[in-house]
Design a protein that fits this description.
596 residues, 20% strand, six-stranded mixed β-sheet, single chain, Rossmann fold
Length: 596
């Protein structure tokens, strides 16, 4: 059953078109992934569906009584509430109102003038039954337990429940906003990048929640692994238009779209050849007819009419403009790149790192994973010399030149202009700096714009530009794909594929980890444990270590169920004999339909 439909809906900002006559039907059990480049109009589409924006053209239809829950990228929380109070506020107020009406009706039924009057009693009983049904439908019977389990699933400890919302970080506020929405259980759930600040455990919780959700879910996400697991259709917004790719996850959509574009290119070229042939015939007939026979002229006019009636095939855009990223290496660097020996780190008596040991050889690609707050960024800062370990030693190879990508973009000067930040890399003319900016999708008209005014994705691209210019042979990347759209993340992956240096990366992007790293190092409870493979291999090993794990959850954690899912990883044939110094990359085996 269709619960919501857009019919030729358009939206403008001033004279600029955002959505141009888009049509889309949402089923009551939809699991849709909404994709498109940054700025394509995904959030605008969400706001139209949620009723925050009015369309400038077209029609909207929705099922009577439909409830819609919308989580924005930056949720607004009451700073005066605690974490648990903020989550309760999502559905608690309505449930309290229904419960109050139930109690009032029960009190009414206890009055003699009601229970002694058959008609009045029947009306009161009918009203009470309706209220009980509404209370149950809204989840009132297990609302409190749902609040607690949702917060725990998203990574909050019970000690965090009484924290003030005013004291939360940006990432924590987003998680509270997500929890507040999840407990309300609306008929249609709109999630705008809900996974941005989730660790791997939180992402697994979100995947399971969406899989079990009784209503419809539409999710905007740049996490291709998440879209592979949860999406049953992909809705793409591109060039102001919307297209639905039914019965496919992200990897299937990417493959199907690529094949469709190649077919369109073939059809376009064949049509252009046919039009050129007909136009040549017209020119010949007109030349002959002008000198000899009017019949040739009539035939020429007839062919011209045929040409005019041909429905034109648009020339497809096979390669869209993306950032021009490539990493250069200035020298091979030391054979032993990084050695962390028995390192511990304490903050206010709490031990964040406990006797950590890590050895990284030249050419390796190592993925550092672990729950939020486990100490991954602390370890990075210690490697960079920004933190001093409480115990142990960290040694970098003497020939290493270290490049650092900061999750919060601390490497950027927010008070500088774009032009100033680029020219600070090395002496260069404004023209050369403008060329570099253009390569990373910054027009010259933005040269005087402050770095502080850039979006998250733009700051990420600017950091990538700085890394490219540094010629580093050892890269420390802290969540590099967090603010990148899918196209930019794929450009980064391609650049790292060609990179000949050494890589240590913190990431919760499982698709990225599957493609890029050949060793996973998990930081949990202050200690490190390594797995000689990519993310999929890590998940397989974790599942083997937990035989009592629910079978369905284990299967979901290891890989998407459908054929043609994201690239699958495998372990090295003989992990104990792997020569890490060679940096041999354990390339994921590609699923046929999901390969790029």
């Amino acid at each position: 059953m269709i619960i919501y439909a857009l019919d030729k809906v358009s939206k403008y900002w001033g004279a600029s078109v955002v959505l141009d006559q888009v049509s889309w039907e949402i089923d009551e059990h939809a699991r849709a992934g909404l994709v498109g480049p940054n700025g394509a109009g995904k959030s605008t589409a969400f706001k139209i569906i949620a009723g925050e924006y009015e369309p400038d053209g077209g029609f909207i239809s929705r099922r009577r009584g439909l409830t819609i829950g919308y989580m924005e990228q930056e949720p607004q929380l009451d700073p005066g509430l605690t974490v648990v109070e903020a989550v309760r506020s999502g559905g608690g107020a309505e449930l309290l109102q229904i419960e109050g009406e139930m109690r009032a009706t029960e009190a009414q039924m206890a009055e003699p003038e009601v229970y002694q009057d058959e008609k009045k009693l029947a009306r009161a009983l009918e009203q009470h039954a309706r209220l009980v049904e509404a209370f149950e439908q809204k989840g009132g019977l297990n609302f409190e337990s749902r609040v607690i389990s949702t917060l725990r699933g998203l990574g909050f400890a019970e000690a965090d429940f009484d924290l003030s919302c005013a004291a939360l970080s940006g990432g924590q506020k987003k998680l509270v906003g997500l929890a507040r929405l999840l407990v309300t259980r609306p008929d249609l759930l709109l999630l705008d990048e809900p996974d941005n600040h989730l660790d791997l455990k939180g992402k697994l919780f979100l995947e399971q929640f969406i899989a079990d959700y009784p209503g419809a879910v539409v999710i905007v996400s740049h996490d291709r692994y998440l879209l592979d697991v949860v999406a049953e259709e992909i809705v793409e917004i591109e060039d102001h238009h919307l297209r639905v790719w039914s019965n496919c996850n992200y990897s299937e959509y990417a493959y199907t779209k690529k094949m469709a574009l190649l077919r369109q290119q073939q059809m376009y070229e064949l049509q252009q050849k046919e039009i050129a042939r007909l136009e040549m015939s017209v020119r010949r007939l007109m030349g002959w007819g002008a000198a000899q026979n009017e019949k040739f002229v009539r035939r020429a006019h007839s062919i011209e009419k045929r040409i005019e009636k041909i429905p034109r095939i648009d020339r497809p855009i096979l390669e869209r403009k993306t950032m021009g990223l490539e990493f250069n290496v200035n020298g091979r660097g030391s054979n032993k790149v990084l050695e962390v020996q028995n390192v511990s780190k304490r903050f206010d008596g709490a031990e964040v790192l406990r006797h950590v040991n890590l050895l990284v050889w030249q050419g390796e690609r190592v993925g550092l994973i672990g729950p939020n707050g486990a100490g991954k960024s602390v370890l990075f800062r210690s490697i960079l010399g920004q933190e001093q370990p409480s115990h142990g030693a960290i040694r970098l190879g003497p020939s290493n030149v270290v490049g650092y990508y900061a999750q919060e973009h601390e490497t950027l000067d927010y008070n500088a202009t774009l032009m100033e930040e680029v020219r600070r890399l090395r002496p260069m003319s404004e023209r050369e700096a403008a060329g570099l900016m253009g390569r990373f999708l910054f027009g010259f008209d933005r040269a005087g714009q402050k770095v502080s005014s850039l979006s998250g994705g733009e700051k990420a691209r600017l950091q990538m530009l700085k890394l490219m210019m540094g010629n580093y042979n050892f890269l420390l990347l802290d969540e590099p794909t967090n603010n990148l759209d899918i196209a930019s993340a794929e450009v980064l992956e391609d650049a790292l594929d060609e990179y000949r240096g050494t890589l240590l990366v913190i990431s919760h992007d499982r698709y990225f980890l599957d493609r890029i790293v050949n060793r996973i190092v998990e930081l949990e409870d202050g200690t490190l444990k390594e797995y000689l493979g990519n993310y999929t291999y890590y998940k397989e090993q974790k599942a083997k270590q937990a035989p009592d794990l629910d079978r369905g959850q284990a299967a979901r954690a290891q890989a998407p169920a459908r054929n043609g899912g994201r690239p699958q990883g495998r372990a090295p044939d003989k992990p104990e004999q792997t020569d890490r110094r060679k940096g041999a990359k354990g390339t994921p085996a590609r699923a046929g339909r999901g390969s790029r």
